[in-house]
Design a protein that fits this description.
Distance between the termini: 57 Å
Number of helices: 22
Largest sheet: 8 strands, mixed, barrel
Oligomer: single chain
CATH architecture of the largest domain: Orthogonal Bundle
Structural class: alpha/beta
CATH topology of the largest domain: Hypothetical protein af1432
CATH class of the largest domain: Mainly Alpha
Number of domains: 2
Strand order of the largest sheet: 1-2-3-4-5-6-7-8
Shape: elongated
């Protein structure tokens, strides 16, 4: 029997900016869909998901629009009120639209200031009565014709309603949606489409890449690492800003590269090296790079935390973290993954997992990728192979998401108001 899983799938505009996430749910009773065959089944499923959201939504679903499909039962249980109005889009489908009580509830939520989206919208009488309350129309790229999409987008825009084309799993469907004027797109192709930070294989010779190689050696040379960082203004600024962020809550500000390295520690420097790579002279991160970096952190955390449950793994938690982090190197560096991994001293099991999805490390990596793409069947199969309890995966996923969001917020804060350390209290050189 498959487990219950909840995952966020990004919704992005043509520029690559993430406008929100759809909360996808899978479980025995499909609580977020209209598939429940009886009201008692829907009630049981609604109770399960309501309990989960009560425990988790305030922690992990802040700061972005969350598109969530609600059944009549979830609307009646006032589940939308678990979310701040600025964070939630109430998504509804046919089963809700044809239900008189549901329609009354949706209008009430809209009146309170919640936004509303309609799945697989059609310009038919049962939908038209709701138009004044709709903020987003979602169109299925696989079932709607080009003419249907064009007409729907034009009419929606005339009414100040935004259109999102869903189920995009290939380049052709993505380009069609962009050409036809969709405001945003969603699907496995969209989730994988990331803005790259570097555009030249020469980046392998850059200070950043050489620094990454240096910190991943079995016995890192602190002086070599210090010299590499000191030679690059961006890396120096990024490191000092990171160490002096609220995350470390230092009594005194670290003012030298050596102090920063000693405070951070080589282990954390190794893990957070990607964040340094995003630093420029002003230490600003463009939206595409921010999304890429967050995905790197999420994969790293997810791989590492799943190691608490996976059996017979040939690598450590720290190595699993690196596997997740390095899985996005081909976005950061415009070069074949084979060439990149030749330069980085990681375990052969990690290289086999990243290059050919082999072995138990490959299964763990595939489990993380399957969760990203909401491949429910594959998630269950891989969890069984790795002997990970499927009822733990979603909890681990949301814990990791919370950790990544917290880390990102703290590390991108401005310098706290610290004073330079007195000479006698400076960290040992």
């Amino acid at each position: 029997m498959s487990g219950k899983y909840i995952v966020r799938q990004p919704i992005r505009d043509a520029a690559g900016n993430t406008i929100g996430h759809e909360i996808l749910y899978h479980g025995a009773n499909q609580a977020f869909s209209s598939d429940s065959s009886t009201s008692s089944a829907e009630f049981a499923a609604a109770n399960t998901i309501y309990s989960f959201l009560t425990e988790n939504s305030p922690k992990v679903l802040k700061g972005t629009l969350n598109f969530m499909t609600f059944t009549t039962m979830l609307l009646m249980k006032k589940t939308p009120r678990l979310f701040d109005k600025s964070d939630l889009v109430i998504q509804i489908d046919d089963a809700v639209i044809i239900h008189p009580l549901s329609m009354h509830l949706v209008r009430q939520y809209a009146k309170e200031g919640y936004r509303v989206a309609v799945n697989d919208f059609q310009f038919t009488p049962r939908y038209l009565s709701l138009l004044d309350d709709i903020n987003f129309i979602k169109i299925n790229a696989k079932t709607a014709t080009e003419i249907t999409i064009r007409n729907t987008v034009e009419i929606a825009h005339s009414m100040n309603i935004k259109c999102i084309v869903t189920n995009i799993d290939e380049e052709k469907l993505y380009q069609r949606a962009v050409t036809l004027g969709a405001d945003a797109m969603e699907g496995t192709y969209v989730a994988d489409k990331l803005t790259t930070k570097a555009h030249s294989s020469a980046y392998i010779q850059s200070n950043f890449f050489q620094l990454m190689v240096a910190v991943t050696r079995d016995e890192p040379n602190v002086e070599e690492i210090e010299q590499m960082i000191a030679a690059d203004a961006s890396l120096s600024y990024g490191l000092l800003k990171m160490v002096n962020s609220a995350y470390f809550a230092l009594r005194y500000r670290a003012t030298t590269i050596r102090q920063a390295i000693m405070t951070l520690g080589l282990g954390q420097l190794k893990q957070w090296i990607y964040l340094l790579s995003a630093s420029n002279a002003e230490n600003e991160v463009d939206p595409g790079s921010e999304e890429f970096l967050k995905r790197s952190f999420m994969r790293a955390n997810f791989c590492s935390e799943l190691m608490n449950y996976a059996k017979d793994m040939p690598i450590s938690k720290a190595e699993a973290y690196l596997m997740g982090m390095f899985s996005t190197l081909n976005y950061l560096i415009d070069a074949p993954m084979e060439d990149i991994l030749e330069e980085v001293p990681v375990a052969d099991e990690i290289k086999a997992a990243l290059l050919s999805h082999e072995g138990r490390c490959g299964m763990l990596y595939d489990l993380v990728l399957s969760y990203e793409s909401a491949d429910w069947e594959k998630i269950t199969v891989l969890a069984e192979e790795l002997k990970i309890p499927d009822n733990m995966i979603t909890s681990v996923y949301f814990i990791c998401m919370e950790n990544v969001n917290t880390l990102w917020e703290q590390l991108t804060n401005p310098y706290p108001q610290q004073v330079p350390a007195p000479e006698e209290e400076a960290p040992a050189q």
